[in-house]
Amino acid sequence: MRATTREGREIELKQDQIDGLRSRLRGPLLTPGETGYEESRTVWNGMIDKKPALVARCLETGDVQECVRFATQNDLLLCVKGGGHNIAGLATADGALMLDMSAMRGVWVDTERKLAHAQTGCVLGDVDRETQLHGLAAVLGFVSLTGIAGLTLGGGFGYLTRRWGWTSDNVVGMSIVTADARLVRASSDENADLFWGLRGGGGNFGVVTGIDYTLFPVGPEVVGGVVAWPASEAPKVLELYRTLAEAAPAELTLVALMRPAPPAPWLPKEMHGKPIVALLACHSGRPEEGEKAVAPIKAFGRPVGDVLVRRPYAQMQSLLDGTQPKGRRYYWKSEYLPRIEPALCAKVIEHAGRIRSPHSAVILFQLGGALNQLREEHSPVGNRDARYVLNVAGSWERANEDAANIEWARDAWNDMKSFSTGGTYINFLTEDEDPERIEAALGKGLQRLAEIKSKWDPQNVFRTNRNIRPA
Ligand SMILES: Cc1cc2nc3c(=O)[nH]c(=O)nc-3n(C[C@H](O)[C@H](O)[C@H](O)COP(=O)(O)OP(=O)(O)OC[C@H]3O[C@@H](n4cnc5c(N)ncnc54)[C@H](O)[C@@H]3O)c2cc1C
Predict the structure, then answer these.
(1) 323 CB under 6 A from ligand 1?
(2) Is 0.85 surpassed by the pTM of this model?
(3) How many angstroms is it from 151 CA to the middle of ligand 1?
(4) Residues of the chain with pLDDT under 70
């Protein structure tokens, strides 16, 4: 079988080598054409079309260790798939041995210590489901099908970030299989350098098999949902967003977006496909306070749809899932913002008016709060001055529409990037980003990350990621 080395050369893997690996694994080892191979090799972004030579569906840590050992002994390129949601498709690589973690999806909740231990094949919804049984939640992201691994290793933000910081700020320990196939614990007491690097430095240091999250009392009921107006109301709605967000308590997270209306049942049929402006809100505190906090949104103008109500927190966490299906084509450009300026709102309206697909959007996510209160050096995720995220999110169906949609996203980004803090979110970077964008994402932490890489992965075994070269 043809496979690819770490340096990108083609090699031949003999059948007895493959059979030997298969015999040492508890989970299946899949080759092209076998049932399950396609499901594993494909990722969320349909623009990515890579074919690993072998896919190991790991069932336990021992499988991960066997695969890392096999890859290093045979100089084989290794890639690791968590939820497969990285827009740049970093989870997959041509000719590689892929570790598909999706069968390792256990979650254990310790209600006394308010901790959850989650295996890294979990998607966000797995953790929310188990923790919400106890009225608890970890700080995770907005779409329940996203993998916890990639999200946490790159930082992670969602509706609880303003209260408790990045996802990675709320991790107390990780289990990781390193380049020499050892299982190692990383926490503030054990291998503290590795622990620092893992909270923002991505999958550069090994295969993380388990993550321990601090949990907080949230829900089970919160006030959350969306209100939408025709795009003609955007100047007033974005001004409302700007003023409400500036004064919002940490419990309230507001997201503004402009896009063609999706064919959702809560929007009238005659609006489907027409441009709208919408505010998405989640108040994670007491529902009575939440209702007061979102009252100005619900009372504003004449919405075409309003589903901003009391609802289960777990439902809130999956509200956007349907808008982001696996297999569609996606291209994002993103920046952190220090504030929302009226001039930026005008640009958002202008570029939303030029959207070329029914699925694309210009989105403003609110951050701020707890994440601004830690020091820059706390972890490599940095960007402690970020108060909003601008995401120009292109999404379309067919390959022959690639050029037009990418051009739209790039033009909009080029025109709005002057509003940036100068930083960007590593987990939103697309495949074609320049190295300086990785510097913009990791900033001052890069040198220290390179030193940690030298110690834990000097041969750069783990390179199918936002790769940090050993110092
Ligand atoms: C629809 C959608 C919604 C999103 N929403 C949010 C959001 O609300 N908040 C937010 O912060 N981000 C969000 N993101 C971005 C998200 O954080 C990144 O896409 C992240 O990389 C996804 O993690 P994953 O495990 O699914 O990725 P994958 O594509 O599986 O992996 C991403 C990277 O992590 C590495 N990796 C995966 N598993 C492991 C492991 N066990 N050990 C070591 N390395 C590993 C991979 O090798 C790869 O380099 C969203 C993305 C999408 C597509």
Answers:
(1) no
(2) yes
(3) 4
(4) none
